[in-house]
Amino acid sequence: MKEIKAALWMEILKVRRTKIFPISVYFFIFIGIMMGFLMFVARHPEIANRSATISTKTSFLPGSDWNAFFDLMIQLVLTLGVIGSGIITSWNFGREFSDRTVKDLLSLPVPRSTIVLSKLIILFVWNILLSICFVVTAIISGLLLQVPGWSGTALTPFLVTFMMCVIFNSLLITPVALIASAGRGYMLPISFIILILIFTQLLFVGLPDLTFWFPWALPALFSGVAGEALPSPGYISYLIFILTILAGLFGTIAWWRYTDHR
After folding, report:
1. CA distance 135 to 76
2. Mean pLDDT in residue range 136-143
3. Cβ-count burial 155-175 (b if 16+ within 10 Å, e if not)
C-alpha cells in the first residue's frame, strides 16, 4: 500500500508541474462554453447567417432545446473523450522515453507494475475530471444563455449516460498505454488514436452490424446517440470491451517488467 501511495504521489507531482494539465482543463472548459454558444446561435438564425461556417455547423444540430443539447454533449464527449484520453496517455507514458527519465523511474525501489498502475489511475481520474469540467461548463452556459426546454427530470438520466460514456472511454486508455510504451514516444499512440477514430466512423457508416464487435464503439452504442437502427451492445460487446482493457493493462505491465530498457 505504501508503494502505490508513493507512486501515485510521484505521478501527481509530475502532472501538477506540467503545463499540459491546466491547458487540458482550460481547453475542455472552452469547449463547454462554445457548446452553449452554438446552441444560442442555433436559436437565432440571423446570427448564424452572418457566417457560412457557423451556419453550416448549426445546420447539423437536431434542435435548439435541452434535449438536443444533451445529445450534442454526449456525441462530443464520445469523440473528445477518445482524443483527450489518448493524448494525455501518450504524453504520460511517452514522455518518460522522450525525456529520457525512464531509467531514473525504473531505478526507484517500487515494483514496475506499481508504476504502471499509478500512471493509469492518475490518467483515469484526469480524464474524468476533464469531462466533468466540460459538462458542468456546458450546462452552466446553456442556463445562462437560456436554452429552452430545461427539465430537471431529464438531467439525471443524461448525466448517468454521459458519465458511463466517459468511464468507458477512460478505461480504454490501457491499449494506448501499451502502444506508447512499446513505441517509446508520442507519435505511435497518437497515430493509433487517429486510426481508431477513423475506423470507428467507417464501421458506423459502412458496416454498422459489426460495431458491437469493436470495443471503441461500445460507448456510442450504449448511449443510443448512434441511432435506433444500430444494434444494442450485448454480452459479447462488454466481454470484448473488458478483454481489450485487460489485454492493454497486462500487456503494459509485462512490457515494463520484462523489456530491456537500457
Report:
1. 10
2. 93
3. eeebeebbeebbbbbbbbbbb
